[in-house]
Structures are given as structure tokens and as C-alpha cells.
Amino acid sequence: MRTASALTTLLLTLSTSLLSAAPAASAPASVNWPEFRGTDAQGHSAATNLPLTWSPTSHIAWISPVAGIGWSSPVVIGDRIFLTSALPVGGVEDPKADRSLHAMSLDATNGKPVWDVELFTATAPRAHRKNSHASPTPIFEDGKLYVHFGHLGTACLDALTGKTLWSTQEFAYSPVHGNGSSPVLFEDLLIFNADAETEPKVIALDKTTGKMRWTFARQSEAKKKFSFCTPLLVDVNGQKQLITPGSGVVNALDPKTGTEIWHFNYGQGYSVVPRPIYAHGMIYLSSGYDKPILYAIKVDEASKGDVTDTHLGWIIDKAAPHNPSMTVIGDELYFVADNGILTCADAKTGAIHYSERCTGPISASLLAADGKLYLQDEKGLGVVVKPGKKFEILAQNDLAERSLASYAIIGSDLLIRTEGNLYRIKK
Prior knowledge:
Radius of gyration: 20 Å
CATH superfamily: YVTN repeat-like/Quinoprotein amine dehydrogenase
């Protein structure tokens, strides 16, 4: 047990670290990893000297056990790591047990816990086998950690101490297969998709109070309304747009008001998971189940109303992802199907350079960093690929532990969350 003076010293040290590391728009991606898919929210990092090879017994800085079940990805600010997890009520692991929903902070230097707080309890229906009660990734800003458990609740914490500043379960909805969409921040708003079984919507809360600010009712012809996609904020010729895919449609909203700017329809696609990306003046997204189609949608000042017939750049209907998010490196678009087929295509035209077996079944999103492309499959195999028009595997690294969460970066190290642990991988 720490003494009062020791605890005070720890809190002062953490406070200084968090304040000095608070992310800004100009902060390099190698400093912090403040949300799902990093500083640019599209899986890029400016970090260098990252590890190429690792195993359960080599290139490990530390391994920290993580209790419960959760597939949220790590968030990194300075020397602190933040996660969420769903622990069994009563302490005995049982897939059918009620869940205690937690947020936690770890010391990045050694992986040891700093704080761990319970926010909600859940008696919700069992999640899909590739989902959990703690799948959305938290987001950090200005000393505050915003945690979201979908239909089960949302909260804002003091990142220094774990103290709850506000929490709400006011915006519950009827999910299918659990929750999945991570939140985003815009000015004074916390925004997330709530694509329920019926009446799917996008919700914006006041990030200071947790009170409703606006909602957007999603309309599409898709018969199955549920989806799990995380929105993406983009800048289109000086105009901020919230790109928010759902079943059958992607909507671009004014993030301040929730007013629609444009929409693009893609039929009966549902259970949409991959976060969209933006490059070369186009939005790239995958249309979801049952057969995903990759769409490149042109975005410009003329994008208003229904742009389905006017702004399609191109499509790819083979080996598109159901779950992993894509990335663009230069003029090449990279995406991996859930069966492990990695495709490299010309981002401007959709011309395919290669489509090759790369991993086993995979759900985690792609990471582009240090002149490499990183993939992490569901059995714990990390594959490093050389970017370019020719397929070349640089390394294969097997942790031999189930893994669905996406990578995070801290300094020149990788963070990999598995079913039971968090690994810090060093060069």
C-alpha cells in the first residue's frame, strides 16, 4: 500500500506528464495515441525505429495481465495507457455472467495499474463471439478520458485520478450482437453512432455535461439496420464533415449541428464495422455484410444531398473487409479481408496491384508506420509487410494468443492487446 506522501508524489508526477503530453492538432503521431487508430484516426504513425520481430519470449518490454473481456484498443498519453474491460460480476469468469464495466490506467513504463474504476454493470444480451461488452476504444482530450460502452453507457473521467466527472445511461438502444462504435470529439461535443436494431441514429453529447446536444436519424433502404462503425472527422476544402457509415448508407454531417451535408447509398449492406478513411479527395469504406463492397466516394464542394449517382469514384467487390479498417500509404490503398487476403490497389483508380494471402482470420485494423505495414490476426500472429506494389512479407511474429484489438504505438514500441494480456513490444 502506498503512503499518502508517496501517492501525492505519484499524482503530481502523473499530472505533469498528462499536461505536458496533452494532444494537440499538431502533435506528432509518435507522441500520443489518443483514440481508435491514433492521432489521425486512420492508422498512421510518424513513429520510427519500431520493432520488426517479436515472440512471447523476445522483444518484450513487459506483459501486463488485463482482467475481464474487452476488445477496445489501447489509448496512450505520455507515460499512461488507458483501456476498458468487462469483468465478471462476482469475480469468477463465466461467459454468461453479468458484467462490471471498467476503465483503467496503466503505467507505460512497467505495465502496472495506476487506477481501475467500475462505471456500469451490464445484464445485456451476450455479445457476438467476436465482440465484447467493452469493444469501443476510449478517447482522450485535455486531461479527460471519455469512455463509451455503446448502449450500456458513456462516461467522462479525470485521466489523472480516474474520478468520474459525469456518466449517463440515458441513451440506451436495442443492439444486435453488442456494441462497437468508438466515440469522436469535435469542439465541445462527444459524438458516436447508435446504429440499433431499429431507429438507427447518430448522437452528440455535450462533452462537459453528458447531456444531449443533437441527434441525427439515419434513413436507408437496408432491411437490417444495425451497424458498428466509428465515424471519421475530415476537412473538405475548409469544411468539417463527420463521415458516418451505417447500414445501407454513409452520411456526411455538419458535426456542429448534425445536419446532413450529403449521403451515398449502398443497398442492403449492414453490420458495417470498418472505420472509413479519407485520402486523394475520396472517402474509402466497406459496405458490410453479407458481401462487402469497397467504395471510393469523391468528396468536393459539390457534394450535397444524394450523391449516389454522381460521386462514385470506383468500387472493388472482391476481398473487401467485413471488420478490419483500411489505410492509404502514398498512392496505394491497403485493405485486408477477414480471411487474411491482403490487397494493394491504386487509391486513385482502384486498379489492383496484388491480392495475396497474408494472415489467418483477422479483425484488427491495419497500421502504417516506420515504412512498414503491420497486421495482427485473431490467433495472435503479427505480420509485417513492406509497402509497395509488390507483395513482400518482412516478418511473421506469433504471440499464440487470441487477439482482436488493433495496434497502438508508444514511443518506438508497439502495444498489442490479446485475450488476457497487454504486451509492450520493443525493438
